[in-house]
């Protein structure tokens, strides 16, 4: 099992979650579409060659985003990450993939 965590602006929160859930990620036992999310503030500066969804190149920007965490079975993690990237509005979405110990 893995935990997938990603950051997404509120405008695309449900769209990106739906894309990831469609892969089968977010299933725990007899429940699906399981996740945890919290609103926070992200910061970035778009460099030359970027195509920022928000803000402008060369300027530090802050944006309200959600951090979404969900579990994903081994055989689905690559598909879940690919779906998240495809549905995400950012050209370089921030995300983490953590292997989970089976204790």
What does this structure look like?
With 103 residues, the chain is an alpha+beta fold. It has one domain (2-92): Alpha-Beta Plaits, CATH 3.30.70.120. Helix content is 19%, strand content 35%. It has helices at residues 13-21, 77-87, and strands at residues 2-9, 36-45, 60-72, 95-99. The model has no long low-confidence stretch (mean pLDDT 95).
Corresponding CATH architecture: 2-Layer Sandwich
Structural class assignment = alpha+beta
Q: What is the CATH level 1 assignment? A: Alpha Beta
The number of helical segments is 2
Order of helices and strands: EHEEHE
Low-confidence stretches are none
CATH topology: Alpha-Beta Plaits
InterPro entries: DUF34/NIF3_sf, N-reg_PII/ATP_PRibTrfase_C
Protein name: NGG1p interacting factor NIF3
What does this entry show, briefly?
The protein is α+β, with helices and mostly antiparallel strands and 103 residues long. The protein contains two helices and four strands; from the N terminus they run βαββαβ. It has a single domain (2-92), classed as Alpha-Beta Plaits (2-Layer Sandwich).
Tags for this model:
alpha+beta, Alpha-Beta Plaits, four-stranded antiparallel beta sheet, 19% helix
List the helices and strands and how they pair.
Layout: E1 2-9, H1 13-21, E2 36-45, E3 60-72, H2 77-87, E4 95-99
Antiparallel strand pairs: 1-3, 1-4, 2-3
Helix pairs in contact: 1-2
